[in-house]
Amino acid sequence: MHRSIIPSSHPRAKSLYIRELLVNGFRNGIVAPEGLIAHGRGETFDYLLGENTTETARTAIKAACSLLLLASHPVISVNGNLAALCPKEIVELSNLINADIEVNLFYWTRERELAIEKELKKRGAKTVRGIRSKDSARIPELQSERRTVDQDGIYKADSILVPLEDGDRTEALVKMHKKVIAIDLNPLSRTSKAAAVTIIDNAIRALPAMIVEAEQLKQKNDKVLKKIVDEFDNSKNLSESLEIIRCGVNARQR
Ligand code: ATP
Ligand code: MG
Questions:
Q1: Which of 36, 42, 93, 164 is in Cβ range 3.0-4.6 Å of 185 for a Cys bridge?
Q2: In the prediction, which pLDDT does 5 show?
Q3: pLDDT computed for residue 3 by the predictor
Q4: What is the model's pLDDT at position 253?
């Protein structure tokens, strides 16, 4: 762990700490080199959003948790960056909402999927799906490595949480009539636009916030949860995040 080399008084300490998590993940074989670059795209948006979970993101988090709690077969899709950023929270959220955990990689290698499985199990995951076998299924129309999914996981799921997803697969999952819930810092990405609910926030903050929200929403009945989902408008929510990016602090404080 390299945290000690970043002075906590540094004005950019949090951002540097997140980078360290990813670099450590890269060194441990969990993060792909391209994942480090993808993080760079994400952190640009995070900077513009004020590096905090906005009220707009909180509205989406509430809708996301309601949708996941209403699902009969929810799955959390995990890639290298997510496993490096918040492995403990992935396991905690999956227990809370009764979701499967499935590894799904754009830059797939056997070594990396096994390293991610090991990390999640170390954090308490009992079952990790998506480790390729002869029984793996394929998402129709998708050419990337991300098309290979678990027969009894993503392939059969009705709702899928996809933090840091590629637009191609989001669109393919929507075509398969799945409810896709995205966590993506870019309100302009294809993923953000195609998902049913998009949380415009850094996954490292969004997952702990989802855990708190899901704990509260678990006490509510289905009727209340359905109302939250019905009242949520993803395009309106995305426009609000864009407005925050455009107008900065003033829009955030409004
Ligand atoms: P799309 O394929 O959806 O059009 P893209 O090609 O621009 O998007 P990808 O590299 O496919 O982007 O996916 C990575 C996405 O994850 C980017 O939109 C990036 O902003 C986002 N991202 C990176 N790091 C984080 C993070 N820590 N939390 C949330 N989102 C992140
Ligand atoms: Mg992409």
A1: 42
A2: 79
A3: 52
A4: 52
Return the residue whose CA atom lies nearest to atom 11 of ligand 1: 166
Q: What is the mean pLDDT of residues 64-69?
A: 98
Cα 232 to middle of ligand 2, angstroms:
25
- Give the number of the atom of ligand 1 that is nearest the alpha carbon of residue 168: 2
Confirm if 207 and 163 have CB atoms less than 8 A apart. Answer: yes
Question: Measured in angstroms, how far is the CA atom of residue 220 from the centroid of ligand 1?
Answer: 32
- For residue 142, report the distance from its CA to the centre of ligand 1, in Å: 18
Ligand 1, atom nearest to 85 Cα = 27
Specify the ligand 1 atom closest to the Cα of 106: 11
* Cα-to-centroid distance, 10 and ligand 2 (Å): 32
**Nearest protein Cα to ligand 1, atom 7:** 189
State the residue for tokens 């003033």. 250
Q: pLDDT, tens digit, for every residue of 105-159?
A: 999 999 999 999 999 999 999 999 999 888 889 998 888 888 999 999 999 999 9
